[in-house]
Amino acid sequence: MKKHIVFACSSGIATSTVVAEKVVEHCKENGIDVVYQQAIIGELPSLDNSVDLFVVTSQVETKLNTPVVNAIPIVTGVGEEELLDEIVTLLKG
Questions:
Q1: Rounded distance, CA 7 to CA 22, Å?
Q2: What is the CATH number of the domain that holds 87?
Q3: Total domains present in the chain
Q4: Residue 8 and residue 40: Cα distance in Å, rounded?
Q5: C-alpha distances in angstroms, 7 versus 15, 51, 90?
């Protein structure tokens, strides 16, 4: 199963890189092949409906059709496993 995820933060580089590594690895362990890109939060509206999931580390003010997951638990480590499992469930659903 191949899924496309956009990882976004305010700069498009810092926290989204850390989160991407963890999410991609967890997805791979659960049989999901992930194609991903990194972006800044402001780019999400132009990517809406073109990917399976947005994983963000900054507040998203815009209403989007694509599911959005806040990945702060991955950055802080508090609730990380639960969130990674939730992402797998969303992608398999």
A1: 11
A2: 3.40.50.2300
A3: 1
A4: 5
A5: 9, 11, 15
